[in-house]
Amino acid sequence: MNVKLVLVEGGQPIRSFQLVKPETLIGSDPASDIKLRSSEVEPRHCIVQRKKSGLVLVDLGTPTGVFANGEKVARQATLASGDKLRVGAVLLEVVVEEDHHFAIAKRALHRHYGALPPFSVEELRDWTAEQLAEQVLVRLNALVEQNLEEMPEEHELDRLVTEVHRELTSWGPLERLMNEEGVTEVMINGRDQIYIERQGRLLKARNMAFDSDEHVIAVARQILAPLGKFVDRANPLADGRMKDGSRVNVVIPPLATRGPTITVRRFSRKPLRGDDLVKYGSMSPNMLRFLQLCVRERVSIVVAGGTGSGKTTLLNVLSSFIPASERIVTIEDAAELQLDQDHVVTLEARVSGLEKGEQPVLIRDLVKNALRMRPDRIVVGECRGGEALDMLQAMNTGHEGSLTTVHANSPRDVLARLETLIMMAGYNLPLPAIRHQISSAVQLIVMQARFRDGSRKVTTVSEITGIQNETILLNEIFTFKQSGYTAEGQLQGRFASRGFIPKVIHEMRENGIAVDLDIFAQAESDKTF
Predict the structure, then answer these.
(1) What is the 3-state secondary structure (H, E, C) of 82-102?
(2) CA-based angle 521:452:458, to the nearest 5?
(3) DSSP state, residue 9
(4) pLDDT band at residue 133 under the 50/70/90 scheme
(5) HEC string of 415-438?
(6) Cβ neighbours of residue 276 under 8 Å, at least 6 residues apart?
(7) Nearest CA to 382 among 366, 399, 417, 406?
(8) How buried is residue 352: exposed, middle or buried, by Cβ count under 10 Å (0-12/13-18/19+)?
(9) Which residues contact residue 381 at a Cβ distance below 8 angstroms, ignoring those fewer than 6 apart?
(10) Strand intervals (E) in 309-387
């Protein structure tokens, strides 16, 4: 195994240091094995040890400390290839080049481990993380004994077991990305293609890779295990919600023909507020004031847009405007909404899992059940099927002000999409009856879009004003007028009001609710983006 530390400046490798001794001293002292010239580096700052079990970084108790992947090392830490160290103000990257036979043995051990039956759901629930790690180690040692002909020399066995054990009980490169601020999506396409989304832009993660496809599958299984899910060749697809609320999807061969894939959609620990959307240019102040008023006064709203357009984020913001005195029931495929109100019941759909006899529970089942739970508002994360009919019936029968989202590209597409979803309920309702149901239940359609520069904006706010000759009538209240892109690729445009006073506002004023009509003035002076 060839091990070296690479000095990095400005994102570029400057110089490399081979680690050939059992202990390599790093510091500013001329006698150091790796001498670093920096006022923040102590004469004897830290040591990197080469052990049979792998690489270990030891902090020598310096005031400034030493950092591994952004985390301050308390006393010592295990290192792996690709780890980044900060010694004082100096950045070093760990590079480990495995010998061919060791790499083959590691892949073989991963393969044998992957062929074992998964731990039961009951075991995973009962064990602590430490107990699970112990059980993984027991399995690995047994596999080494059973497959000695595929293993490396005896003096390398400890290191082999230690490295594979670490890969099976940690998330490798994914662990660092999940802790990185600003990363909203992580996409792993096989062992050496890792992409992230930051500020709406897709970027390739530099100098990051898994050791093998088997390592990617091992990480996927570790993520899925606490969720009661498992992937193998017979069940190569799984998804679920992680403990921190992030959504994960896994596809492995034979379905993923170019290697196993993991897609993780992260959600901010601190949910965005309406003011944040205005600050980031996702909507205008007048749009926000209008939508806030509509949610408070129980106007039923459908949020629509394409995949990744920010529908769930906007739905979360709108739901936050529901008065705290009301009982809210949220229904989602994977629980993502983060509401601050006290009286919130969160329901999550379920697909079949590892437990015997576990039956799927669909969104539609939960919507029907929610009607028996005395909700003031029902919030459905997304309507994808026959639950659209149940949702509209709820809006029409005492649950006004409920909210949901659908996939669509325009307000008129939303209506066509709702018609299709209602037909999926299986009642063979005539199209005129479906359209009357939609026009009486839904009052506002809010369109959200993601643009090519990564920005997300509310593009239109439209009101359903009735139905005429079996055609649902729409009036646009607010719009985003796009004017192009700058030389740097940034979207340009402005929000504007159509000067139309919505029907829902007239109804509010008739009920004695004060509304500032300046919200709808056409001469809106919102900033240009």
Answers:
(1) CCEEEECCEEEEEEEECCHHH
(2) 30
(3) E
(4) confident
(5) HHHHHHHHHCCCCCCCHHHHHHHH
(6) none
(7) 406
(8) exposed
(9) 312, 315, 330, 331, 332, 333, 334, 336, 337, 404, 405
(10) 328-332, 344-348, 377-380
In a 10 Å sphere around its CB, with 0-12 CB exposed, 13-18 middle and 19+ buried, how is residue 419 labelled? middle
The region that residue 281 occupies, defined by phi over 0 for left and psi between -120 and 50 for alpha, beta otherwise, is left
H or E segment at 278? helix 274-279
In the numeric block, the tokens 């015997």 are attached to: 356
**Alpha carbon distance 264, 239 (integer Å):** 10
3-state secondary structure of 523: coil
Strands 34-35 and 23-27 come out as: parallel
Cα–Cα distance between 341 and 343 in angstroms, integer?
Answer: 6
Cis status, amide bond into 152, omega within 30 of 0 = no
Q: Per-residue DSSP letters for 298-316? A: T--EEEEE-TTSSHHHHHH
Residues 503 and 507: their CA atoms lie apart, in Å, by 6
Cα(309)–Cα(303) distance, rounded to whole angstroms?
Answer: 11
The structure tokens listed for 426 are 């299986």
CA dihedral 441, 442, 443, 444 (to 10 degrees): 170
Give the global pTM.
0.70
Mean pLDDT of 466-478: 94
Say if residues 88 and 40 touch (Cβ distance below 8 Å). yes
Q: If DSSP codes are grouped into helix, strand and coil, which group holds residue 468?
A: strand
Q: Which stretches of 32-128 are DSSP H helices?
A: 100-114, 121-126
Q: Find the mean pLDDT for residues 289-312.
A: 93
Q: Nearest Cα to 244, choosing from 272, 263, 265?
A: 265
Query: Average of pLDDT values for 421-437?
Result: 92
In tens, the pLDDT along 348-362 reads 888 765 455 567 888
C-alpha 452/C-alpha 193 separation (Å) is 22
Beta bridge partners of residue 187, listed in sequence order: 195, 263
Q: Which of 32-41, 65-74, 319-328, 350-359 has the lowest mean pLDDT?
A: 350-359
Beta carbons within 8 Å of 313's beta carbon, 6+ residues apart: 272, 456
